[in-house]
Each structure stands twice: as structure tokens, then as C-alpha cells.
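Posting for a labmate who doesn't have an account.
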Amino acid sequence: MPISISFFGAAGTVTGSKHLIEVDGLRILLDCGMSQGEGHESDKRNRFFGFDPHDVDLVVLSHAHIDHSGMLPRLVAEGFRGIIWSTPATRDLCAIMLEDSARIQESDFEFDAKRAKKQDRKPDWPEPLYTVEDVKPTMAYFQTIQYNAPHKIAQGVELTFTDAGHILGSAAVQLAIEQPTGTKHISFTGDVGRYVDRLLPDPVPFRQCDVLICESTYGDRDHVPVEEARDELLHHVQRVCVEQQGKLLIPAFSIGKTQEILYTLNALSNAGKLPRIPVFVDSPLSINATAVYREHSTLLQEDVRAELQRDPDLFGFNGVQWIQKPEQSKALNARKEPCIIISASGMMEAGRIRHHLRYNLHDERNAVLVVGFCAPGSLGAKLLDGASEVRIFGDTIPVKAAILRMDFYSAHAGQSELMRYIGCQDAAKVQRTFLVHGVERSLTAFKAKCEGAGFKNVVVPKRGERFEL
């Protein structure tokens, strides 16, 4: 029974995670993520899977981020009828994230279509990949497994999830596949978290594997220490909001990143260091996701759980306001006073942050603080690359605001942390290693590190490539 792996996303790039394992007629899809950041090219990839959804028997989902889960409603709409396996927290987050993704697609398309009609041009924004109505049927296919609880998901196939420490519920995937010559162990890291004193525990070591599929987002560099990060965030708030009397815009993924930033701001507030500046969390998804974090608080670090006994709301403090309604969000753009606005999405490709950028990038008193990875081609990447102007909803916007960067709040392991994570493996026993979820420079650097550590047959697959094991 030969086993094959085909890579249909996150191959040579960081989004659209989709890896198809085939064994004896059984097809298991690892993740079903949305491609982002490359405009029409991403849209084309999202509308053509590269395989027939009818033929997929099972989906194993590493975590809830949209670049890993965001195409599940379209997969179901095109004929998938199998089981979607995840952890309980991933299922709960997907229930709100996928609906939010659909609403954003519908809203952005409607907004741009109206503006295009007024401006007598073609819409820039593509039609939604799926609608809110597609989400509920998708959630019906979810079944969950706790961490470290091996479960038979098909004849001769056992699945185990281990905590990857990336976001709440994130998991590394361990598949044990029975073969005539013995059991073949395939491990997929999903996205690997940090070894830092933050909200989530360290990534958990995983059992010895024969085949390793490993993410490489920061395969070429490390992050700054936690103490420096807290001081740096405070410095940016002081400089932009107090000295310049401007707005500090923080584009942040609603899951993980927003909670981490609020946790830091809460700690600074409790220590009496945070200036009395209003903080607006402008993302309905962030509000719902924070509730899920509270519900699954047993997954947080032990010291964070102890802190919850003293401070029941680790994400709230005097001055923070949660924005729900569109009218409230629009009012922030008319606001002249200094403030902090945390809003999704992190790559600035969709959601309310695009509206805030449209109204605030032109003012040199303001600043945009980028706190995570931005895929090449995304609006976030263009700003980081020093663009003097950008296109948002058909308008050309001059960039006068400062563009700041803090990689610390990335939920992805840095190079040294990735090497520490896969260091639980006897490299000599890993027959093949596939590096995914990275751009060329990070993939190249991490490939050299893996080979230097004794991993053999290290491959950087291209999109659409198939490998027989």
C-alpha cells in the first residue's frame, strides 16, 4: 500500500495550507486553508483546489487560523462529506472564525461594488468564496479529539494531536498508518508556537516519526526577548499617542495575537505604566474569540491560570472598549483624539482595519504597528516594504504615517525555537522532511539548519508536487 503526499498550498508560501495524503484509496487532507496576499492569484487558487473535494475522505485540521481552515465551507459546498477532525477549542474557534470570514467577504464585496458603480469602474474585490449560509453545514462535519488521546479515524490509521502552543487548540498532527512492512509514522507540525512566558504552554514534544512536514515561517531568524518587547510596545504608545497625539493602529489576527497584546497592555496597566489612552478593540471576532479563550482557560499556562484567580479578566482594563457595531467602527475614523485601535486582519487584507488605514495613513502623527508575519503581496507587506502610497477599496492612499514592526507578538516559533521543537526527533530515523509554510529565504535558511542537524532528504515542495513514500 504505497503512501503519497501532495502539496496544494503553503508550498513556497505561507498561506493556503493544504496537504493531501493518499494511502490504499483513502484520502486525508491536512488543513484546508485560504490563500491570502497575492490578489487575483490567491483568488484563483482559492477557487480551484487542485483536487476533487468529492474524493477527500477526511480532513485533519491543525488549528483555526483562516490560512489553515478558511476554505472548509467551500470544500463542503463542492462535495466533501467526510469528517473534519480537530481539537475542541479549534472547533469552537472555527465556528466563529468561518462565519466572520464569510461576513467580511460579503461586506467587502458589497462595499467595493457600490463604490465601483459610483466611480464607473470594475470592482476590485472578488465575489465571496462562500457565504454565512455555508458555514453551519460545515460545522456539522466536525468531530473532536483531545490532546494526547490516540483515535482510530480510518481502517489502519490512528490520529493523535499534541499541543503545538501556537494558538488556543492548535495541534501538531501525528498519523500512524499501518503498512505490510510495519507502521509508518507521519508528523505534521501545523504552526509551531513560542517558548516564551506568554498565554500558552510551550509546544509539546512529539513521538518519533518517519516523515516530517514542518512549518518554516521564521526559519531564517529569531525573535526579541519578552522583556524588550514589553518595553518596546510601551515606547510606541508613548511616542505616537502621547508625544505626537496620534493614533496607533495595530492590525492583529483576532485569534491569539489580539489576546496577547491585550494581555501585555493589561499587565502594563496593572503596573501603572500605561498612559491613560483609550484602547479600542474593533473586531467582533476578537470579542467572541476572547470569550472562547476564557471558556478554554485550562489550556493556558499554569501561571496564567493562577493569575486568573487574582484578575478574572486578563484581557480587559480601564480604558479598553470593545467595538461591535459598524457605526461605532466608523466613528473611530472621525475621532481626532489619540487612541490605540486593535483591529483585524493582521495582514491587512480584509476586515475593518482596511477602513482605518484608508482614513489614517495620510496623517504623519499616526503609526501602524505590524505585530506579525505579512505574506508577500499583502497590503501589510507593501507597507513594510516602504510603499509611498497604496490602493484601498479603489482609492489611492498616500502613506505618511510611520510603519513600525514588532515580530515578538508573532505566534510562530523563531528559527532557534523551531530547531528546539524538532530536536525531540532522532534526525537519523526521519526518512524524509518536507518544509512548508515559508517564503524562499526562510525555507532556504531552515533547510540548511535541518541538514546541519542531521536531517536527511530535506525537501522544499512546490505547489502541486506529489511524492511517493
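Reply:
Got it, the C-alpha cells are right above this. The first helix runs from residue 40 to 47.
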